[in-house]
Design goal:
By secondary structure, the protein is of the alpha/beta class. 39% of the residues lie in helices and 20% in strands.
Length: 147
């Protein structure tokens, strides 16, 4: 199959280089454009009833978190020769935002990292699994080597 638009979803971990490199290799083989995204996980407001809590400074400044993510994504894009206009930082639940972006931007291949989690770890923390299960297009889950 010849892909027309490859989406590379990164999480800024050390292993994201593996994901980017594989996605760029496939895009080059298919001569197709690449989009590079990162999702800042949405933190919903919490109601603790009458208990006084101390809210960390970062919690009140979601825009600062997004801004830092944008800088990090631009750095990755520059290092890998990906055009600035092909990058996007989204806010929400990673699996939902990745799927939504792929649908609305006519992506036909999603490249994402997978740590090979099983059992409860998969249910509680994996983004790759629900993306694979629900994507309208092909998904390449790159097994991350933890060496």
């Amino acid at each position: 199959m010849n892909y027309q638009h490859t989406l590379i979803a990164v999480d800024f971990s050390a292993s994201c280089e593996q994901v980017i490199n594989r996605g760029l290799h496939i895009a080059k083989l298919n001569s197709c454009p690449v989009s590079l995204i990162h999702v800042v996980e949405y933190l919903p407001p919490m109601d603790f009833g009458y208990e006084p809590i101390i809210v960390p400074d970062w919690y009140n400044n979601e825009q600062e978190i997004v801004s830092q993510a944008e800088k990090s994504l631009q750095k990755l894009a520059t290092e890998h020769d990906i055009a600035t206009e092909r990058t996007r930082v989204l806010t929400g639940t990673p699996k939902n935002e990745i799927l939504k972006f792929a649908e609305t931007d006519d992506v036909d291949l999603i490249v994402i990292g997978s740590h090979g989690r099983h059992g409860f770890q998969r249910l509680l923390g994996s983004t790759a699994y629900p993306v694979i299960q629900n994507a309208h297009c092909d998904v390449l889950a790159i097994r991350i080597s933890e060496d």
